[in-house]
Amino acid sequence: MNSTETESYHSWSTNGRWLVFSSRRIDGVHTRTFIAHVDEDGRFGKPFVLPKENPDFYNNYLLNFNRTELMTGKITVSPQKIRDAAREAASPVSFDPNVKIDALSGACKITVK
User: Fold this and answer.
1) Neighbour count for residue 110 (Cβ, 10 Å)
2) What whole-number distance in Å separates Cα of residue 50 and Cα of residue 35?
């Protein structure tokens, strides 16, 4: 199922039979949402692009969106509230200088006793 291009933001269905993810596998530039089926033996079917009403959508829409989630519950937040939250001033963030974090991966060392 992997391609040589960037693939990320994987989300599984509740029954583990479907996987949705973002990928640049078509042109290496634009991110599109793909869906793949997993059979009872754990084999993946060929991923396909999330269908849109307009077949030219992905060729004409150049803005980037790629954080798809498979959900079973109802969305109770209005689009306006999401927009308003995105427009709020950023909150200051500070990091504990005693925690050693890998700058490339964001991973931190965990000691198990």
Assistant:
1) 5
2) 6
Sheet holding 48-49, edge to edge: 7-12, 18-23, 32-37, 48-49
pLDDT at residue 29, rounded to an integer: 80
**pLDDT < 50 positions in the chain:** none
31 close to 24: Cβ distance less than 8 angstroms: yes
Residue 60 per-residue DSSP state: H
pTM (predicted TM-score): 0.62
Length of the chain measured in residues = 113
- In the numeric block, the tokens 């040589």 are attached to 4
> Helices marked H in 24-87 — which ranges?
57-60, 79-87
